[in-house]
């Protein structure tokens, strides 16, 4: 059983939950930009949460089925029909020999996630099947999909679990401000920069990708020149380079950086530790999926919450996801 790539789309790659445990060797974690949508796509079939899925960016591929399989689609609404018929997000569909999935006009969000019952058959590299585009390894030959690729499927014909995705997890991009947690170097920036961070809008620029989002807005300046040693960064670290225009590090971020940080999104297990090294603020982990679904031209706003509240929100969502995965997991 395979899926044949007739057209590859703009940037379609395989992602699991990331390549953990190798950052001390300079190997990025990678993984999905929108982890919640990734995990929901697998949960619809009872797949393991870290099973690789296709991350589809803005303009999706056309895939032809050879054999029989079941697919699930979550994340952004990129106008995906099955054999020309609408396919709502959050639902599974059965494909038979000759059926095809294509993507049309984007309606909302930036990234959709396509899972297959049983998973895709991929080799692990450094304990992960996630694609490292800059390194050229992992995923499907370390690259984006290309025309003519035949993607092998593990295959499972067990009845999928009856899963209703809660509204609180069916996100894309909202107008709500992204929430920040101040860090210990907050006072190294000017009062104007501090005020701008939670009162001024910032626009996502076209110079944005899986490695980082570059924002345009009020200049964020230090109160005095400061030399920073390179230190660990995480998903959502927002750096302020010399020009003062913030850079938000995303899934394919580097492992270290020396620009002063303006925000940080960390795993709940890391958030207290990262708070000790973040130089201005942290973005609450719970808002990362919405950030990941932004496209160039989107306007972002920020607000502040306490560290305890950021952890509470993240833990509440993690418990909900874990409960869904536990209830739908296969033996």
Helix coverage percent:
10-25%
How many strands appear in the DSSP assignment? 22
User: SSE string, helix = H, strand = E?
Assistant: EEHEEEEEEEEEEHEEEEEEEHEHEEH
Q: Average pLDDT value?
A: 86
Number of domains: 2
- Quickly give the structural class: alpha+beta
What about the largest sheet?
A: 6 strands, antiparallel
Counted by DSSP, the helix tally is 5
Overall geometric form: elongated
Uncertain segments: 266-280
Beta-strand fraction estimate: 25-35%
Ends distance: 23 Å
Radius of gyration: 20 Å
| Strand order, largest beta sheet | 19-16-17-14-13-21
Account of the protein in words:
It is a single chain. The chain has 5 helices and 22 strands. Helix 1 (35-43) runs parallel beside helix 5 (307-328). A hairpin with a 7-residue loop joins strand 13 and strand 14 (212-216). It has 2 domains: 2-170, no CATH class; 178-322, Cyclophilin. It has helices spanning 35-43, 191-199, 271-275, 288-292, 307-328, and strands at 2-7, 11-15, 53-57, 62-66, 69-77, 81-82, 85-86, 91-95, 100-101, 108-116, 150-152, 178-182, 202-204, 212-216, 231-232, 238-239, 247-249, 256-257, 261-263, 281-283, 299-300, 302-304. The strands form 6 sheets. Strands 19-16-17-14-13-21 form a 6-stranded antiparallel β-sheet, with no helix packed on it. It has a 5-stranded antiparallel β-sheet with strand order 2-3-10-5-8. Strands 9-4-1-11 form a 4-stranded antiparallel β-sheet, with no helix packed on it. With 331 residues, the chain is of the alpha+beta class. InterPro entries: CT_A_B, Cyclophilin-like_dom_sf, PxpC. Residues 24-320 form the Carboxyltransferase domain. Keywords: ATP-binding, Hydrolase, Nucleotide-binding. It comes from Pseudomonas oryzihabitans. One of its GO terms (molecular function) is hydrolase activity.
């Amino acid at each position: 059983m395979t899926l044949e790539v007739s057209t590859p789309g703009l940037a379609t790659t395989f992602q699991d939950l990331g390549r953990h445990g190798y950052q001390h060797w300079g190997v990025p974690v990678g993984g999905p930009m929108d982890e919640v949508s990734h995990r929901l796509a697998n949960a619809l079939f009872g797949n393991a949460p870290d099973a690789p899925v296709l991350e589809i960016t803005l303009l999706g591929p056309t895939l032809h089925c050879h054999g029989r399989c079941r697919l699930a689609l979550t994340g952004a609404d990129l106008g995906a029909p099955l054999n020309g018929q609408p396919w709502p997000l959050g639902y599974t569909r059965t494909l038979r020999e000759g059926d095809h999935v294509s993507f049309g006009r984007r309606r909302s969000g930036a990234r959709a996630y396509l899972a297959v019952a049983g998973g895709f058959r991929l080799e692990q590299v450094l304990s992960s099947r996630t694609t490292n585009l800059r390194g050229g390894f992992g995923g499907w030959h370390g690259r984006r999909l290309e025309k003519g690729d035949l993607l092998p499927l593990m295959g499972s014909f067990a009845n999928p679990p009856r899963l209703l995705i809660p509204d609180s997890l069916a996100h894309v991009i909202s107008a709500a401000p992204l929430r920040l947690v101040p860090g210990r170097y907050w006072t190294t920036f000017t009062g104007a920069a501090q005020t701008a961070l939670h009162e001024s809008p910032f626009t996502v620029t076209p110079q944005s990708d899986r490695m980082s989002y570059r924002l345009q807005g009020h200049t964020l300046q230090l109160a005095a020149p400061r030399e920073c040693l390179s230190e660990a960064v995480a998903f959502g670290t927002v750096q302020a380079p010399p020009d003062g225009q913030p850079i938000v590090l995303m899934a394919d971020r580097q492992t270290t950086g020396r620009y002063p940080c303006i925000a940080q999104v960390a795993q709940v297990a890391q958030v207290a530790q990262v708070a000790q090294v973040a130089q201005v603020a942290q973005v609450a982990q719970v808002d990362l999926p919405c950030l990941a679904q932004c496209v160039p031209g989107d306007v972002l706003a920020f607000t502040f919450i306490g560290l305890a509240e950021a952890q509470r929100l993240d833990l509440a969502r993690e418990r909900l996801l874990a409960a869904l995965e536990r209830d739908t997991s296969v033996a």
